[in-house]
Every structure is written in structure tokens, then in C-alpha cells.
Automatic annotation (TrEMBL):
One of its GO terms (cellular component) is plasma membrane. It comes from the Bacteria. Its main location: membrane. The chain crosses the membrane at residues 6-23, 28-47, 59-74, 95-114, 189-208, 229-252, 272-292, 304-327, 347-368. Keywords: Cell membrane, Membrane, Transmembrane, Transmembrane helix, Transport. It comes from Thermogemmata fonticola. This is C4-dicarboxylate transporter DcuC. The gene is dcuC. Belongs to the DcuC/DcuD transporter (TC 2.A.61) family.
Length: 450
């Protein structure tokens, strides 16, 4: 088993080199998984994992419906109303632009879920403000990237990471996604955000430089257009609906017959929570069409275009990363980690945050990292008496940090495109605030019981 673990480590190093050299992430991860499957004799298991994950509604429904909703928000302009509502007070106060942009993007990411869509809707408003204040393109990109990807979506019960943790801890009182988003994740996410924001704010004094005289066109119409409060509230509709229908509030009850066939024994279908997320996103689409009726005609077209984008660029990455994680497990990596944690239980918390961070930085997806690696730490957590749901919060936040510092992540590429900077430069600069944040989270979890 140790020999195959060493082979797996070599495959990881080779995969990292190929990805950094520009190879497609999905091709590299799937090829590496099949290679390890051939070495261990588990290649049929890899193929089964590929096919089952490709059609797993736990990922397809929430991700594709959330991306469809994000496209509808962009089509109707509701996302821009929310962004302008958040950023307008910052226009006259230059000193608060950096933390203000980061916080605004973080808040928008909570209902939108998609980091790329968050950057796409915040960027056109935030970047001209930062550039006009004299900040460089790279600094502007760092602020947009950090706010859009540091982990705001983890406070939304519809985030797929929460569904992964919930599925592994069925029956745990904190396992339902609404409970995770309300109880276990906010302390971890907000500590990470606070430390990363402060470090970024301080370091930007080193990176700051006067912008060139010709700053390019600034969309003054976008930044000064009137704000419709009704449109600004549309992005929050699915989020509020999910909290209202989940524990502990239970203000609304979605009949199971709406989303899944009734069972003879009266029990709830396991897919209920996943499909309620999709239903909440459809309600958001309907709200956008009602608030902006002149754009209603093409809302469903935009929804399915966004769903297709989510499948092609997010679900596909989760599928291949899950195959890679399965191959690593077959190679004995999970068993080796479990043995190491049994010998040194104090390593559980750092490893649960840092290993997903490294994998997400490699593959560019926090969702894929959480899905692939959380199972590596679930059983060791139970063995040493650590709450697996609280440990899942560390894994999710570590994965979000790794995605944000990945030069191949979709959100990094989007921020680089919007600001005219280099993805690798953004990733290198944003890593220091993120590492400071995750180190603080680990220390507080180990010594203060965060």
C-alpha cells in the first residue's frame, strides 16, 4: 500500500506540472485517475465514478440551476442593481474602496453562489472605481478575486459543498445545509474573510501605484444609473426561500410531491433538499421576470444557457476531480492519512484544511476539492472524537481558499480578463492574505475551539 501511495504522490506532482504548463485540468485529472486505476487494478471503479457523478443530481441540480439563475440576473440587470446599491456609498471615500469592494463581492457571492458570475457582475462597477482612485489593474483584480471567491457562497444553503457534508453526516443535528449555513460555517468563513481582508488592505499599500493617465473607458452610466430596490432584492429571493423552508425556522413547507414522488412509508426522498434548491432558483427566475417584465421573454433561454455553462465548466470539473479522488483513495492515500491522524490526532485539523486547499489550487475548483477529499477526513474525525460537520466547515473553507489562489480557476481567469492583468500575478498576490486567514482559522480551531 505504501508503494501505491508513493506512486500516487508522483502522479500528483506530474499532474501539477502539466496543469501549470497549460494542459486542460479535466484531461489531466481524468488521465491521472485512470493511470492510478490501472496501477491499483481499480480502473472499473474509476469509470463507474465518472458515470455516476456525471448524472448525480446532488451536483447537477444545484450547480446548473444556480448558474442559470445567475445568467437570468445578468440578463435582467438585477445583479447590477444590487452591486450599485452596495458600492454607491464607497464612491466618495477612497480609503474604504479596497475593503468595500471585497465586502460587496463577498455579499453578492452569498445569493449568486457562482464565483465567476459574482466577479462578472461586480467587476464592471468596482473596477472603474478602483482604477479612478489610482489603484493598478493587478490590485483591482486582487480585490475583486478575493471578495468573489473567499467563501461567501458557503453561507448559502444551496452551496453544493454543504450538500456533500450533509450527505456524509445523515442524522447529525448540524448536518442539514441550512444549519451549516446558519451555525457551523459563519464563524469559520467570517474569520477567514476578516483576516484575509485586513492583510490584503495592508499589502495593497505596497502594491499600490498610480494608474496610467489613459485609464480606458469607464462605464459612468453603470455606476451612476438609478437603483431599483425591487430589482436589487431579486438575487436574495432563493436565499431567503431556502432559509425559510429549512431548519430551524421551517416557516414554509415545500410539499414533497412538488419535487419528488411520495414514498409508501411516508419518508422523505433523499433528493428532496437538492431539488428544493433547484425550485428556489426557479422562483428567483420568476421573480426576476416579474420585476423586469421587458426582459421576461428570454429568461428561460438565459436560464438554460447558464445551466449549460455550469455543466460544462463546473460539473465536468467535479466529475474528473471526483474520479481523481477515488483513484487516490484506491491507491491507499486515505488509509495512509487515517493512519497518520491516528498516530498524531493533532494533525487532523491542519490536514483537513490544508490538503483540500492544495488540491483546489491544483484543480481550480473548491466544490470538486470538497467533494473529493472530505471523505478522507470523515472517518478519522469520528475515530478521534472530532465533530465531522465542524471539520467539514474547515474543509470547505480550505477548498475555497485554494480555489481563490489557483491560476487555473474560472474566477481567477475572469478577474484577470476584466482587469487586463495576468492570472498568475493575481494568484500569487492573493495567496498571502488567504494563507494568513486559513492559518488563523486553524490556530483558533486548535486552541480556542472555533
Amino acid at each position: 500500500m505504501e508503494g501505491t501511495s508513493l506512486i500516487a504522490l508522483g502522479v500528483v506532482v506530474l499532474s501539477a506540472v502539466l496543469i501549470l504548463r497549460g494542459w486542460d485540468v479535466r484531461l489531466v485529472l481524468l488521465s491521472a485517475a485512470l493511470l492510478l486505476g490501472a496501477v491499483t487494478g481499480e480502473w472499473p471503479r474509476i469509470i463507474r465514478t465518472f458515470l455516476t457523478t456525471l448524472a448525480n443530481e446532488k451536483f447537477v441540480v444545484p450547480i446548473c440551476s444556480a448558474m442559470g439563475f445567475a445568467y437570468v440576473l445578468r440578463h435582467t440587470g438585477c445583479d447590477q442593481h444590487l452591486v450599485r446599491l452596495l458600492l454607491r456609498p464607497l464612491r466618495p471615500v477612497r480609503a474604504l474602496l479596497i475593503p468595500g469592494v471585497i465586502l460587496a463581492a463577498f455579499i453578492v457571492n452569498i445569493p449568486v453562489i457562482s464565483q465567476t458570475s459574482t466577479a462578472a457582475c461586480v467587476g464592471p462597477v468596482a473596477i472603474p472605481l478602483l482604477r479612478a482612485a489610482g489603484y493598478s489593474a493587478t490590485t483591482s483584480g486582487v480585490c475583486l478575486l478575493l471578495g468573489s471567491s473567499v467563501g461567501g457562497e458557503l453561507l448559502n444553503p444551496g452551496a453544493p459543498e454543504l450538500l456533500t457534508i450533509a450527505a456524509a453526516n445523515e442524522g447529525h443535528p448540524l448536518a442539514p445545509p441550512t444549519e451549516q449555513a446558519r451555525t457551523t460555517l459563519p464563524p469559520v468563513v467570517l474569520v477567514q474573510l476578516s483576516v484575509a481582508l485586513l492583510v490584503c488592505w495592508l499589502l495593497c499599500r505596497w502594491w499600490w501605484e498610480r494608474a496610467e493617465t489613459n485609464q480606458g473607458p469607464q462605464n459612468s452610466e453603470t455606476s451612476t444609473a438609478p437603483i431599483r430596490l425591487s430589482a436589487a432584492l431579486v438575487p436574495l429571493v432563493p436565499l431567503l426561500l431556502l432559509f425559510a423552508t429549512g431548519p430551524p425556522l421551517h416557516w414554509l413547507e415545500i410539499p414533497q410531491s412538488w419535487v419528488a414522488p411520495a414514498r409508501p412509508d411516508g419518508s422523505r426522498d433523499p433528493a428532496y433538499h437538492t431539488r428544493v434548491i433547484g425550485l428556489a432558483m426557479l422562483v428567483g427566475v420568476a421573480a426576476a421576470a416579474l420585476v423586469v417584465p421587458q426582459k421576461a421573454r428570454d429568461c428561460m433561454q438565459q436560464f438554460f444557457e447558464g445551466a449549460g455553462y455550469g455543466f460544462a465548466h463546473i460539473v465536468s470539473l467535479i466529475v474528473t476531480a471526483h474520479c481523481f479522488g477515488t483513484a487516490m483513495e484506491a491507491a491507499g492515500v486515505a488509509q495512509s492519512l487515517g493512519h497518520l491522524i491516528t498516530l498524531a490526532p493533532e494533525l487532523l485539523v491542519p490536514l483537513a484544511a490544508l490538503v483540500p486547499l492544495l488540491f483546489a489550487a491544483l484543480c481550480g475548483s473548491g466544490m470538486a476539492s470538497t467533494q473529493s477529499l472530505y471523505g478522507f477526513f470523515h472517518e478519522p474525525a469520528l475515530a478521534v472524537g472530532v465533530d465531522p460537520v465542524e471539520l467539514g466547515a474547515l474543509t470547505a473553507v480550505g477548498s475555497a481558499a485554494g480555489r481563490t489562489m489557483s491560476p487555473v480557476a474560472a474566477v481567477t481567469l475572469m478577474c484577470a480578463q476584466l482587469t487586463g492583468s495576468q492570472p498568475l500575478s493575481l494568484a500569487c498576490r492573493v495567496c498571502w492574505p488567504l494563507l494568513a486567514g486559513i492559518a488563523t482559522v486553524i490556530c483558533l480551531r486548535c486552541f480556542a475551539g472555533l
